[in-house]
Design brief:
25% helix
Length: 214
């Protein structure tokens, strides 16, 4: 049955985005926005981002993951390398990540190329995780079909027994990806759907900054 959603409307009034007041470096602009959202109420996980990949079946797929580190080398998240997203990235390393922060009516879209971080970096992060999360990485054959929830619970119990009183090693199939940006777009909601959109693209030594029509 069809459902008309045309009545869902919101007027964006909170902020503006201009070239004159934007940093010439998109990483600095991202850091500025991230900090402002982090310090504003209304978002539980400011580091939640949507990762879009092209699967081995040729279809795009998006899912929300958590950003764990970023600097001018790129944006890092961790996953099971044999999962659907891990296999997709291995098949096609061109990805897109996006952040939507409704509390400040902002969105950031970043196109980039993903590659694995070093084993040393992945291991260091894995060792910093809570023990339950470490066991979870071993427990779940991410994206595989399983019979039921009981399979996971039984597997977790077995691993808790196996590693009781012991350090839990990082699985070989688990680690980080760093996404190296080739394009940034910063979006600020504005009234009458005339939103502000600024795009950064490589332009020689510096980044090229342009305004896009909404």
């Amino acid at each position: 049955m069809a459902e008309d959603l045309g009545g869902y409307r919101k007027s964006y009034e909170k902020n503006t985005l201009t070239q004159e007041h934007s940093d010439a470096n998109p990483f600095n602009q991202f850091k500025k926005w991230f900090k402002e959202v982090e310090e504003s109420p209304g978002v539980d996980e400011v580091n939640a981002m949507t990762v879009a990949t092209i699967g081995v079946d040729g279809f795009p797929k998006s899912r929300v993951v958590l950003l764990k580190n970023y600097d001018e080398a790129g944006f890092v998240f961790y996953t099971n390398y044999t999962s659907e997203k891990g296999e997709a990235i291995s098949h096609n390393s061109h990805v897109c990540i996006s952040f939507f922060w409704p509390n400040l009516e902002r969105q950031v879209i970043i196109k980039g190329v993903a590659e694995r971080v070093s084993e040393e970096v992945s291991t260091a992060y894995f060792q910093s995780r809570p023990r339950g999360s470490q066991l979870g990485a071993w427990t779940s054959p991410q994206s595989d079909v399983i019979a039921d929830r009981a399979y996971l619970e039984k597997r977790l119990e077995e691993l808790e027994t196996k590693y009781e009183g012991k350090e839990i090693p990082k699985p070989d199939f688990w680690g980080g990806f760093v996404i190296k940006p080739v394009e940034f777009e910063f979006w600020q909601g504005r009234s009458n759907r005339l939103h502000d959109r600024l795009r950064y693209t490589p332009g020689g030594v510096n980044w090229k900054l342009e305004r896009l029509a909404p």
